[in-house]
Amino acid sequence: MKVAVLGLLLLLAGGVAEAYPQFQLARDQTCTGCHLSPAGGGLLNENGLAQAEGISQFGQNPGFFYGSTGAPGGRLVLGGDARGVAGYYKWGGSEDQGPLAFPMQVDAYARLKITDAVSFTLTGGFRPQEGTNENLTHVWSREHYLTWQQHPDENYGLYIRAGRFMPVFGLRWAEHPMYTRRWGGTQLYADTYGIAVEQVKENYEFHVTAFMTDVLIDPIEQANGVAAYGEYRVNEKLSFGVEGMYKTFTNGKFILSGDRESEYRELRFGVTNRVYLPGPDVVIASEVQFVNGLVGKSDRTDDSRLGGAPKGLVGAVVASRMFGHFLVDLGLQHYDSNLRVKNLDRDAVDINIHWFTTSHIELILNNRFEMVGFGSGGQSGMWNLLQLHYRL
Amino acid sequence: MIRLLLLATAIRLVTGCGTIDCDDQTYTCVGDDRPATLEYVTETILRPYCATAGCHSAFAFRGNPNTGSHYRFDTVDHARQSILTPNADDPMGVPAVDTVGFDPDSSLLYNVLVRPTGPTGKLPRMPYDEPLQTSEIALIRRWISSPADGGAGLDGLGAP
């Protein structure tokens, strides 16, 4: 049976990891300092490639296929990421543990400049197959969108994007198991169709995204909504952000349809903070969200309205430091989906160690220990995973 | 860093002390006014914990590879369909939810949540990546065993 479970894990547990918010402030002020996308992730610009080479132990040309083609600045920019992971997990009793291994990500990126100001970005790759439609769901395009950029050759200015992408919200950690992603409104593959208006300046940025249920690809979440995130950089060492997201889960109905027999509405808002401590060379990044939910059509009497309106909290604090060619993250995370229920909360301690070997190859050791209700609300667990990342 | 640790500890102490208290042996709660309905269970438990990228969302639509049954819990409609899917061939030999006897112990859905450890028997414990909290399992147990709600809440929102 363990083989079957391992097989399940192989099939189910793929993922995506993208940028490193840990570098913000320590290495550059904005995501656009290293990435072409105003939200970060995906293709790197010239500075991002230089950073990839600079932090690696053995160097190499950092460009796509070692600089042979598709370099930033050209009409067509190309890139990609491949990741695989293997490790060990344990939950609760002695029999609920074992090795696991799975391919995590195989994505190719392309950005085509249509005019100086307008470009088309495409992310395509393998995906977890849909159980009842496996033959047609081996590959997909997670992202595809048009971008209008006010200053095409700069990292700052106004951006407008339309298409399929992840709504921009919060610190946007690369690791999708981070509570502020997993439970924070932007879980893995929650990309969907929307329009984003984004302004990125040296000392501030804001992103507003209106999004809707994906009617073309069976989605993770069937929700319409709007997300907003703003960040103000007080100086080169300190920034604060505010965030808000409203979602209405539509039960699969179209955005304007009133034909819903059930509904869940969710408002989440929160704050972020980054501080760079130059002495110890540490970046501390924090995010806390308050989540106010309302199960719309549940039968509730006046004296039990609280019961159908769970209020939750999700947050994370991560301290990151470079040690030569190694990046070490220490993270504390907390999630409580309903503050009125005792010992419902989860807490996790993460230690991630990244080794940047060449400009293209990274080894990451991910470690997590997690408790429910500090051990009183369910089984505790842990995992140790070694991840191999190859950036094309 | 010490201040941050103290802040994190304070947040945990404040948020882990609700008034609804659940027993991890009997899966019953005191003072629980959460609605034991299909809608509430789907939106607050099944969707966030089970309808993930690689599991029981419409995106992945995973199921039992031994029987070919597939389950989606991302919407109330999908949850109802999945729960009412015949499971006669499942290794447990029981329906997803016992809509006749209202007995959680005879329901596949409940059993995969509470089996004590992992892959010793037939299906693994679910969710396989992180077990549900005691209080969430207790709400599902209460929902399955409440005939007043129209048979585990399945009739409360219309026919599938």
- Name the structural class of chain B: mainly alpha
The helix/strand class of chain A is mainly beta
Rg of chain B: 17 Å
Please state how the strands of the largest beta sheet of chain B are arranged side by side. Answer: 1-2
Number of strands of chain A: 16
Helical stretch tally of chain B: 5
Distance separating the two termini of chain A:
37 Å
Number of alpha- plus pi-helical segments of chain A: 3
Chains forming the largest contact: A-B, 83 and 69 residues
List the helices and strands of chain B in order. HEEHEEHHH
Query: Any idea what the shape of chain A is?
Result: globular
Uncertain segments of chain A of ≥5 residues (pLDDT<50)?
1-14
Biggest sheet record of chain A:
16 strands, antiparallel, barrel
Number of strands of chain B: 4
* Backbone CA Rg of chain A: 21 Å
Helix content of chain A: under 10%
- Quaternary state reads heterodimer
**What is the H/E order of chain A?**
HHEEEEEHEEEEEEEEEEE
For the biggest sheet of chain B, the summary is: 2 strands, antiparallel
Please name the defining characteristics of this protein.
A: 392 residues; mainly beta; 16-stranded antiparallel barrel; 3 helices; disordered N terminus; B: 160 residues; mainly alpha; two-stranded antiparallel sheet; 4 strands
Write the layout of secondary structure elements.
The complex is a heterodimer of chains A (392) and B (160).
Chain A: H1 2-12, H2 46-55, E1 76-91, E2 97-113, E3 118-126, E4 139-149, E5 157-165, H3 179-182, E6 192-200, E7 204-212, E8 223-235, E9 238-249, E10 264-277, E11 282-295, E12 311-323, E13 326-336, E14 346-356, E15 361-372, E16 381-391
Antiparallel strand pairs in A: 1-2, 1-16, 2-3, 3-4, 4-5, 5-6, 6-7, 7-8, 8-9, 9-10, 10-11, 11-12, 12-13, 13-14, 14-15, 15-16
Chain B: H1 2-15, E1 21-22, E2 29-30, H2 38-50, E3 63-64, E4 69-70, H3 76-84, H4 108-114, H5 134-144
Antiparallel strand pairs in B: 1-2, 3-4
